[in-house]
Each structure stands twice: as structure tokens, then as C-alpha cells.
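Subject: for your reference before the review

Hello V.,

The reviewers asked for a structural picture of the protein, and I figured it would be easier to keep everything in one thread rather than splitting it across files. Below is the amino acid sequence we used in the manuscript, unchanged from the supplementary table.
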Amino acid sequence: MTSPAFRPTHVVPGPGMPAWEVPDPARPTVPLDPLLPVQLLERRGDWAYVLCANGWAAWVDGRLLIAVPQDPPAPESPLTRAADPRPLLSRASDALARYRAAVEELAGGGLDGEAFRGRTRGLRIGVIVDGEDVWLYDAAHGRWVYAEGTRLSTYATDEGPQAGGHAPTEVVQAEGNPPTEVAQPGGHPPTQVVTRDGP
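And here is what came back from the structure prediction:
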């Protein structure tokens, strides 16, 4: 039975994932099912403490969790203007070409660090391609869009919903549990958790 306070923030990846009783690779517990919705409660470096709909909680490798959008755009907002991914793909290609040209010039000694920063200032692109699926960042409208062939839909926005919407959902840590650096599942350096007041 789902708890009334449960609100998923992430989904377990397709293959499922291992879980641990505590953030310690030596203490495994029952693995999580593929595509299981979970609510992120706490982060410690790459470790994530998640709550399942049935009330069971465990530690997982937070880098593998798939975030789900919490606040869809308001119907009145103009976030569905683009219906064809080709203009965004073209802009992303142009921006990447400009960035690559600047990198080549920097590597060849034609630019110093300051000139490189000037040449790349304002460039913002994002493209994820997974087979027939593509996610594109639309910098002009501050949103990520998802495309299936030639159909685009808004996936996530930089800002919360407009007219009549509520404030965007935030994942916060419980008081008294500051982030700590612990051994990471993948052996990578710890991820720093940043709050509004600083790290």
C-alpha cells in the first residue's frame, strides 16, 4: 500500500539495481526491481537513501537513479511551440561546431584561456541520443524536450510552472543528517551536496 506522503522523485533503471542496508558495499540487501518509483530522502556522496512506496527504504548508488520531472508546465505557458526537433538539432550542431573550433584553436595555441572563455561564453547545448529517443536542451526557452521521431514534448523546465502553479518541489535532507564523505560504490571521489546556504 502506498503511503500518502510518498511522492516519487526517481525511478530505478531498467535492469534493476543492488541495494544496501547502510552506505557500505559489505552490507547488501534485497535488490530493487526495474523501473520501481522511489523517493530520494538523503544523499551522501554517490550514495542515495531512497524510500519505496511500501515504506521500505535502502541505500543505492544514486548516480544510477533516473530523475522524474515533478512539476509539469502550466497549460497556459508557451512551452509547446516547437513541434519539430530539426531546428533544435541544427542549433545544437552549430553550437557544438563553434565550441569544437574554439577548443582546436586553444589546443593549437591560437587562443589563451581568457579568449577561449570569451569565445565560448553563452554556448549552452544538451543532447542525449538513445536509439530512436532523443532529449534536447532548448536554451531559448529554458527547457529539455523529448523527441520521438518528429514529435516534441516538454520533458523538464528550468523554471517552475507559471500562472497558478505551485513552487517547484525540492529534495531536502532531514535535519541533523549533514552530508558526509563515505566510500563510494564506484570508487569515485565523493559528490558534494550543495544546499542554499552552501556546501
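For the response letter, the relevant points are probably these. The helical segments are 86-107, 113-120. The radius of gyration is 20 Å.

Happy to draft the paragraph if you're swamped.

O.
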